[in-house]
Write a structure and sequence with these properties.
The protein has 377 residues and is an alpha+beta fold. Helix content is 17%, strand content 38%. It folds into 3 domains: 107 residues, no CATH class; 77 residues, Alpha-Beta Complex (Aspartate Aminotransferase, domain 1); 122 residues, no CATH class. Strands 4-5-6-11-8-7 form a 6-stranded antiparallel β-barrel. Strands 3-12-14-13 form a 4-stranded antiparallel beta sheet, with helices on one face. Strands 1-20-21 form a 3-stranded antiparallel beta sheet, with no helix packed on it. Strand 13 and strand 14 form a beta hairpin. The protein starts with a strand and ends with a strand.
């Protein structure tokens, strides 16, 4: 006897909103204040990316193979600069790996400051474990050298193998050197003498920009902050602070706290089943029905066997038994403007899974009852 079980989701009749992160147990709607330094940055004061080409030496036979021409050429060039002429075709590079070294130089970095670097293999090296990065110039987009990197690399993993087998933990082709580069050239940023600066919000929003301006003006003085658009504010530096106190002026501003405003948004990741629902999401009047339909099919054969020594034939008649079971459907009504707490409590009561919630959200949005932006990633 063969058994086939077909399970299908029951009806999902939905009109309305949904707000919550699925790992979230929302309570009230109390918004938390944040410092201006966590919401915005001064235009022009930022980090800059640096990159360079280098060699990691001292590997235990896990470096690039001999066919990696750029590795052997780089090694030959380095030896030439040291006064040793070698034929690159005679070099064996299994203990050496070519890497691209990347880093970021922060604003106001001074000569001699240390910054972290990341070295990533560009050849066919199996592992960078135990290696040492040779002196590598790090250049900016303008082609000028801003830092020099060198030192032993560290990995967050390990690997081993023998007789055609092996094991590996984490990634072995990317290494890091903490404080591995020394700043050799400063990026000039002059604050003293500035009459105005632009404060740029990380998340553009007109309401948040207005609140920031009001908070700054109330604390520093009227007219100091002016809203330019949803992402920028103009800071008019008081005349008394323009000469030498601009840094102090910015320090006073960045510690002020405001309550940022956010747009109503729902983010759905269908690959992982993650749903995050923003604070300001609302719904129209809604009823949610959720249930499961189970269909069970049992197949068997009714065999007719003839009498012994008779001329009859054995006949097998296939038979099928079909049963249908449907769980009791729970209907959850929600009035218009229901809060996030009411919604999550109601969905939990009928046993909605993250996958079900995604379907419900999409159905609500299609019905035009979800008063929020639905983003699927």
């Amino acid at each position: 006897m063969k058994h086939f079980k077909i399970k299908s989701m029951g009806c999902l009749a939905v009109l309305g909103l949904i707000f919550s992160a699925f790992i979230l147990c929302p309570g009230g709607n109390t918004a938390q204040a944040a410092r201006i330094k966590d919401l915005a940055a001064i235009k022009g004061i930022r980090s800059n990316q640096l990159t360079g080409y280098g060699l990691i030496v001292g590997l235990d036979g896990t470096g690039d193979k001999s066919g990696a021409d750029f590795t052997t050429q780089a090694l030959a060039n380095m030896m030439d600069r040291m006064g040793i002429h070698v034929d690159k075709n005679q070099l064996k590079v299994k203990n050496i790996a070519a890497v691209i070294v990347t880093s970021e130089i922060p604003p106001f970095a001074r000569i001699g400051n240390k910054i972290d670097v990341v070295a990533s293999s560009i050849g066919d090296a199996k592992s960078l474990s135990g290696g040492t990065l040779l002196l590598t110039p790090l250049k900016g987009v303008d082609g000028r050298v801003y830092a020099l990197a060198q030192g032993p690399v560290t990995l967050g993993g390990a690997g081993a193998g023998a007789a055609g087998g092996g094991t590996q933990k984490n990634h072995l082709q990317v290494a890091r050197i903490a404080n591995g580069a020394s700043v050799e050239r400063e990026i000039p940023v002059k604050l003293d003498g500035k009459k105005e600066l632009i404060l740029s919000l990380y998340n553009p929003d007109f309401t948040t920009a207005k609140r920031v301006a009001e908070t700054i003006n109330a604390s520093i003085g009227e007219g100091v902050a002016e809203t330019v658009d949803s992402s920028a504010l103009r800071l008019n530096i008081p005349v008394s602070m323009q000469r030498s106190d601009v840094a102090e002026f910015l320090a006073d501003i960045e510690t002020l706290s405001i309550v940022p405003d956010t747009k109503a948004k729902v983010v759905v990741n269908e690959k992982t089943g993650t749903v995050v629902i923003g604070e300001n999401v609302t719904i129209s009047t809604v009823a949610v029905a959720h249930g499961n339909l189970t269909v069970t099919i049992k197949k068997s054969s009714d065999v007719s066997q003839p009498e012994p020594l008779s001329e009859g034939e054995t006949v097998a008649t296939p038979q099928a038994e079909v049963t249908l079971e449907e769980e009791e459907v729970n209907v959850m009504p929600l009035p218009g403007g229901a809060t996030i707490g009411e919604l999550v409590k109601g969905l939990n009561s009928i046993g909605v899974s993250p996958r079900d919630l995604i379907t419900i959200l999409q159905s609500i949005k299609a019905a035009g009852a979800l008063q929020a932006e639905l983003e699927i990633i």
